[in-house]
Every structure is written in C-alpha cells, then in structure tokens.
Amino acid sequence: MAAFLTGETGASGDGERADPGLFGSGSVTWQAHGDPMMWIAGIRALYLQALHPRAVRGVMQNSDFRRDAWGRLLRTARFVGTTTYGTTRAAQEAGARVRRIHRRLSAVDPDTGERYGVDDPGLLLWVHCAEVGSYLHVLRRSGFPLTDAQADRYLAEHRVSARLVGLDPAGVPASRADLAAYFARVRPELAAGPEAREVDDFLRRPPTPRALVPARALLWRRVADLAYGSLPPYAHELYGRPAPDPGTVTRRLRRAGTVLRAIPAQVRWQLPPRHILTAVARLGPDTRPAAHRLRP
After folding, report:
1. What is the largest CA-CA distance in the chain?
2. Residue 283: what are its φ and ψ, rounded to 5°?
3. Least buried of 82, 98, 111, 164, by fewest C-beta within 10 Å?
4. Shortest CA distance to 33 belongs to which of 164, 148, 181, 157?
5. Domain assignments of the chain as residue spans, ordered by start
C-alpha cells in the first residue's frame, strides 16, 4: 500500500543484467516474497492499514477506490515485485515516482478541517509496518519456514524499502520486538471510521464481472475471510465483527499454504507481471526463490 495511490512499477535497463537488486537472492525478502500466500498477506495489510483514520483518508480522498480497486491492488503488487526482484535502478525509480506523487497529495480531517500531506512520515511508517508485519505474520502462520532470527532479518532488510518511499531507515522497526513496540504505541490512534468500513465492505463484497461472479465471488470471500481472521484481536474488536477461533484460522492458513505451494513454482511465476522469472533470467537459475535456500 506504500504505492497504493500510485501503483508505480519501474523497469530495468539492458546494462543491469548482473544487478542483484536491493535485496539479492540470498536475502529473506527474495525467498519469502515468492510465496503464494503473499496475496492473502496483502489483503490482511489492507484491512490493518484502513484502521488508521488519517492514512485511509489519504487513499479514499485521492482515488476512486471502488472503481479502480482491483487495478490499484495489482499495481501495488507490481511495486512490491519491482522493489524485490527488479534491478536497483528500477526499484529506485519506482520509489522516486511514489515520492513525487505523494508530495502532491493531501487529505482533510473532517473533524478538525486540518489538511495534511499523505507523505507525512507517521502515515508512511504506519503503512510500511502494517504491510511488512502482515507479510511476515501470514507467511509464518501458514507454515513458511522462517526462524525468529530470519524474521528479524526480514524486517531489517525492509528498512531499505522504507527509504524508497521517503522514510528515514533509522526510525523504522528492524526486529519483531521493535515492530511489536511500534504497534503498541500506535494502537490508541486506530479506529474503524467510515472509510475503514467502506474498505471492509469492499473486501467482503467486491464487484466482479457477471460471467465470473460464482467462481470469483466464492474464492474472494474465502481469501478475504482468511485475511480478516488473521488480524490481531484489537482489529477484530475495532471492526466489530466476530473474531474467528485462532486455532481454526491457523489450520486454514496452513491448509491454504499447503495447497498453493503444491502448484509448481514455474506455473505460478508465469502470471503477470513475471518479476521472478525476469530476475532469474537476469541472474541465473540458482537464484530462484525457494524456502530451503534461506540461511540459518
């Protein structure tokens, strides 16, 4: 959602074929972001991000969320793919575009009349932490093999991506303990206002083409329910919907992870925008993401 308003991606140049990008194939990020459960994690991040009134207003007041939500979700996924698997230049250019657009956008607090920029560091930090925290939570809870040390490495690596959107890396949580402390500090600022309710309603009942309603609607409801179920208890409380049994949610996440990971990676990676295949072509087959490649 760091690029949710803009959906910028970037492209690599011909002279950068040996460039490992921001993270490189030995990073936790490179391996983790190739997992298919990232899609469910991304929906969880949206649910969580919408609970910050000022952050979600920045989205709703600067975009037609309902008319272009699918396109924005996909463009956000492309931004994450570019910063993970693209060249250093492509990632930096994508980040620069996001910063330029964010500098031009603002939102108004309807209670106070205050106008504020969507590039406010506090809002950018919330979006970042909700995003990487959701990725990490869903992957681990669904059975992706990450040790505590590797989870901390993942968060530390993403100080780099935080810099791309305009944050000072020194102020970004770099461990699970840092992240937990951050969420505890920001918790009093969260609320499920009208904008969050609209996001919740869309995620539960998104518009779909008539010909594909039965299949897409059923699949989407399951994905959205699973993402919602994986939220922290305080998020369920704020949204005012029943909190699923944690054990049941974990079993469902693990089952979904097992099913999705059974699909051959080469098949999954054929889906647009094919960031992983492009990176492997650039760097060689030994760089293909696989959980077993993670170093202890």
Report:
1. 55
2. -110, -15
3. 111
4. 157
5. 35-65+88-259
Backbone Cα Rg of the chain: 18
Q: Dihedrals φ, ψ of 106, to 5°?
A: -145, 170
> Residue for token digits 């840092």?
178
Of 198, 195, 218, residue with least CA distance to 208: 218
DSSP for 217-245 reads: HHHHHHHHHHHHHTS-HHHHHHHTSPPPP
The answer to whether 75 and 8 are in contact (CB under 8 A) is yes
- Residue 101, judged by CB atoms within 10 A of its CB (0-12, 13-18, 19+), counts as middle
User: Helix, strand, or coil here: 273?
Assistant: coil
Q: Which residues on neighbouring strands pair with residue 108, listed in sequence order?
A: 115
Amino acid at 82: T
d(CA 180, CA 197): 25
3-state helix, strand, coil in the chain (%, to 5): 65, 0, 35
Pair 36, 130: CB distance under 8 Å: no
pTM of the predicted model over 0.85: yes
Nearest-angstrom CA–CA distance, 51 and 73: 18
**Residue from 103, 128, 98 nearest 118 by CA:** 103
Count helices and strands in the chain by DSSP H and E runs = 15, 2
pLDDT tens-place values along the chain, 296 residues long? 444 333 333 444 444 568 999 999 999 999 999 999 999 999 999 999 999 999 999 999 998 776 766 667 777 888 999 999 999 999 999 999 999 999 999 999 998 999 999 999 999 999 999 999 999 999 999 999 999 999 999 999 999 999 999 999 999 999 999 999 999 999 999 999 999 999 999 888 876 655 445 556 677 788 999 999 999 999 999 999 988 999 999 999 999 999 999 999 989 998 878 899 999 999 998 898 987 777 66
